[in-house]
Each structure stands twice: as structure tokens, then as C-alpha cells.
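Name: Periplasmic protein involved in polysaccharide export
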Amino acid sequence: MFKINSIKWFLGSFFVLCTACVCLAVAVAADSTQVSTNKDYKIGVGDVLRVTTWKEADLTFENVFVRNDGKITIPLLDDIQAEGRSTMELKKIIETRLAEFVEAPTVTVTLADPGSQKYYILGEVMGVGEYPLVKKLTVVQAFALAKGFTEWASKDEIILVRRENGKEQMIKIDYDDITDGELANDIQLKADDIIIVP
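Structure predicted for Periplasmic protein involved in polysaccharide export:
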């Protein structure tokens, strides 16, 4: 009896340890890629930006909204095309225009609210809905944000629907395979991805 209980305790502990390792690996991967994501991110309609000009409080703006025409409005500078550009590209454009009014301006453009980049989770999860895609995110991380599965979820029949170049692609995902160590199957999400858990 003692041996059986000891084996059960060992297997339970081993499972918890493995799960923790998987989660840690995913978290580390996310942290290591976050900087490059911000650099590569393309501004879209609905995004909210923060524009900061060093030592110029009057030229610092907390909530700059990207309008439906893809432009932003900044006092003194008229409208500026933001959609399709990175924050670094937009920073350089703003600095160039500000140079007419401020000597050697230093501008920082950051993403305050990524309203244009979203993904969706449907079906047997605790948190069905629309989520902002704020950084490089994988399927496992998305389920964590959705607070996990319901008790009826078919975790081996998950479908990821992705639209690229006008075509719809359906990718089958087995959640248990990923948590068992098949991390290559932990797909990175893209904007407008739809995850369906039957």
C-alpha cells in the first residue's frame, strides 16, 4: 500500500513539474520575443498611440487615435499617415516635421492600445471572445488568457482558422500533445486568427 501511494505521489509530482516546465518555457519564449514584436508591429486603424517628445510636455500626447482613413492628428503637424507603418517609421516622420518648430526633437512612439490586431476564441473555453494581439502569442498562451477549458472541451480536436492571401486555412491542434512536450505544435497566432474548441 505504501509503495502504491508513493508511486502515485511521484507520478503526480512529476506531471506537475513537467507542466510547470512547459509553462515556463512558453513564458520565457514570449518575453524574449516581445521587443522584436514591437519593432515589427504595423500600425492599423483603431490603434491608440502614445507620442512623447523629450523635454517638450506641450508636444507629448497620451492618446493618439488612428482614424478610419489611417491617419493621426497632432497639433502643429497636420494629419500624418500612420497605418501600415511601424512605430519607428512614424517616430522619424514626426521628428522631421517637428524640426520646423523644435531644435533636434527626440520623439518616442509607443502602442498604447492595439485596437487593430485581434484574435478570437470560440467554443468550450471559460473565456469566449475577442482578445487583443499585443505581442507574439502562442496557442497555449491564448488558452491561458481564456482561463482554460470547460469540462466538455475536446482538446484533441481544436481548430485554428487562419485567412491569408484571400484563402482560408484550417489547422488541427491537439492541446495534450503540446503539453506533453510537442512545443513545435504550439503555433504562434496572427491577427484575425480564430480558435475553435469543440
